Fold this sequence. Notes:
The chain is an alpha+beta fold. It has helices at 2-23, 71-74, 137-152, 158-169, 194-206, 208-219, 226-245, 248-255, 260-263, 284-292, 298-301, and strands at residues 30-35, 41-49, 54-66, 84-96, 103-114, 121-131, 171-172, 177-178, 182-189.
Amino acid sequence: MIEQVKKYLLNLQNDICEEFGNLDSKSSFDHDVWERDDGRGRGITRVISNGSLFEKGGVNFSIISGDKMPKSATQLRPELEGRKYTALGISVVFHPENPFVPTTHANVRFFIAENKGEEPLWWFGGGYDLTPYYGFDEDCVHWHEVAKSVCEGFGEHYYPKFKKQCDEYFQIKHRQEPRGIGGLFFDDFNELVFEESQNFVQAIANSYLEAYVPIMQRRKGIEYGDQERAFQLYRRGRYVEFNLVFDRGTLFGLQSGGRTESILMSLPPLARWEYNYQTEPGSPEHALVERFLKPRNWLELGVDG
């Protein structure tokens, strides 16, 4: 199982870096191979920065093992406590420079937890979500159309289930607001046999470029000024808050002794916080908060709103 998943994830990492590397005319991906001192973790971190499209982006692969599951993994599943584990995955985050291009995140992960004399427990997790700074109905509809289409090949119930889980997970609870417009999120997924579960997860991961690249292509040439840039940095602050306070992947990486530089790759290079910031009613910035950062069925809404 581990070798099958590992081979796919490394190919996925190469595919995403090749696609985005070809689109960015100014920069390319750094390639950083690392290994933990104790030999229980290794990975490949690939980061692009200061490009024509991406101010910062990364596609990370890692595989780690341990004698005891971290608290972030056993909090919802106490039966895993005390088990040895192997975890591998890929994490994707891109922070474009142009405020009209959304930040995007995707990941795929696979766990095996073992206990002597018992059958190993395995499961997949992952998905993708979109964080716009300026909202466009067309982009939201396209993003969710791709997500729905890939899920329907395996069962009509998966898209509404994974969308709901995404809306619930990517909540900045102390702000009482979502991080973005959602997408797909699943965890502890093993309800199909291994091969079919793997095929489903790979199909979702393979659809990520189809979901994101057309949006990026539509928005990358829109002109912007200081006002749009300042609002983007302000909203990036919300992204940072979620990742450092609530993101289970970040917490798992830190609690399991992972490589800090790779774990915190997801953070933007620049962000800002302003006390009691209020958007102006009727402005595009206000529309983001009042219209787009609300869980909704974008497919029923339609492009015309």
